[in-house]
Design a protein that fits this description.
Helix content: 40-55%
Order of helices and strands: EHEHEHEHHEHEEHEEEHEEHEHH
Structural class: alpha/beta
Radius of gyration: 20 Å
Bound molecules: NADP nicotinamide-adenine-dinucleotide phosphate, guanosine-5'-diphosphate-alpha-D-mannose
Distance between the termini: 43 Å
Low-confidence stretches: none
CATH superfamily of the largest domain: NAD(P)-binding Rossmann-like Domain
Length: about 325
């Protein structure tokens, strides 16, 4: 059995990666979870039920170096995937120090624990880097594009990215940084723009919500499907040599186009329902992201299977089902 340790297992990517690894007969998955006053394991509950022997959860936090090193000693993983983060760009302007601590120093804490264990047994490390690191660099962004981060989150990711590379160069660690462009799914958090739009369209269609309040609709993103992107993470750790890769679809769409597509799927015109609120505008914005994933395609043999149309359709259909259930529950509160 191979042992994989995942930070951020309760998040969107953590749940897809755990599902992907548990789909292989030879993996045991150890997920780190944070203590919360109510349980927030909806994304992985089905995995716990289906794989009680091979999915193990441990309390830990990227802010706590001692628990990271003792868990690594206890679990002795073959692969470590660092997916944990305060991952919301807008929120990082409200909580810059916390974001820097968890995203930046948290990665360093984990790398240190990996470095110590790696002296005795080989450990492979994956860092969840982000296209946000390119920030204002002109699109398309590729391996030679310089970083110009535009948020406390992005600056912290640049720090973690370079720490990962330095641990590879200084200590010979098998450490990879995956620079992933935006990836979405029905499991995406409700405050990220794709999910906010697909859930909003579905709830408006079902009469559960009247308006959708949004920020900057001009921004463009390269959106892929999270299920495709976790496959690239795993592939990075299966190569002969560690390296860094960009993972993206190569296509870019504006928030206007996202709204148009999602609302058309429910036979509505988004212009009749969307309001603007300054609250959702960032102090400094990333205008256009569009990635060049040639290296991932050529070296890893990776390519996305779900395109933008398929992604929006998948999310709208999921959210329509949710909205219908909510409507039904309101109409028949007893069951
Ligand atoms: P997500 O849904 O927001 O999940 C984040 C995960 O990190 C959650 O499990 C969360 O736990 C955990 N976490 C937060 N603070 C933590 C802390 N102090 N210690 C330990 N764990 C903590 O994010 P995602 O979309 O799955 O993204 C996964 C990773 O990829 C993140 O590092 C993100 O920055 C990066 N990334 C994402 C994208 C994207 O488009 N999705 C693109 C590039 C890079 P709780 O459930 O307890 O909150
Ligand atoms: N969240 C949000 N809410 N974004 C909005 C809204 C709104 O109401 N209105 C417009 N936007 C715009 C944002 O200004 C941004 O330009 C774009 O929609 C995408 O916002 P998010 O979905 O919040 O994602 P992000 O691109 O800022 O960050 C995500 O992708 C990164 C990779 O590029 C996150 O998943 C990061 O963790 C990830 O690193």
């Amino acid at each position: 059995m191979k042992r994989a340790l995942l930070t951020g297992v309760t998040g969107q990517d953590g749940s897809y990666l755990a599902e992907f690894l548990l789909g292989k007969p030879d993996y045991e998955v150890h997920g780190l979870v944070r203590r919360s006053s109510t349980l927030n394991r909806q994304r992985i509950d089905h995995l716990s039920r289906e794989n009680p022997e091979r999915l193990h959860l441990h309390y830990a936090d990227l802010a706590d170096a001692s628990c990271l090193s003792s868990l690594l000693e206890e679990i002795q993983p073959d692969e470590v995937y660092n997916l944990g983060a305060q991952s919301h760009v807008r929120v990082s302007f409200d909580q810059p120090l916390y974001t820097a601590d968890v995203v930046g120093l948290g990665t360093l804490r984990l790398l240190e624990a990996v470095r110590v264990l790696n002296r005795r047994r080989p450990v492979r490390f994956y860092q969840a880097s982000s296209s946000e690191m390119f920030g204002s660099a002109p699109a398309p962004q590729g391996p030679d594009t310089p970083f110009h981060p535009r948020s406390p989150y992005a600056v912290a990711k640049v720090y973690a990215h370079w720490q990962t590379i330095n641990y590879r160069e200084a200590y010979g660690l098998y450490a990879c940084s995956g620079i992933l462009f935006n990836h979405e799914s029905p499991r995406r958090g409700e405050s990220f723009v794709t999910r906010k739009v697909t859930l909003g369209a579905a709830r408006i269609k079902e009469g559960l919500q009247k308006r959708l309040v949004m920020g900057n609709l001009e921004a463009k993103r390269d959106w892929g499907f999270a299920g495709d992107y976790v496959r690239a993470m795993w592939l990075m750790l299966q190569q002969d040599k560690p390296d860094d890769y960009i993972v993206a679809t190569g296509e870019t769409y504006s928030i206007h186009e996202l709204l148009e597509k999602a609302f058309t799927l429910v036979d509505l015109d988004y212009r009749d329902f969307v309001d603007f609120d300054e609250r959702y505008v960032r102090p400094s914005e990333v205008d256009v992201l569009q990635g060049d994933a040639t290296k991932a395609r050529e070296v890893l043999g990776w390519k996305p299977e779900v395109d933008f149309d398929g992604l929006v359709r998948m999310m709208v259909e999921h959210d329509l089902e949710l909205a219908r259930r909510e409507k039904h529950a309101r109409a028949f509160p007893g069951g």
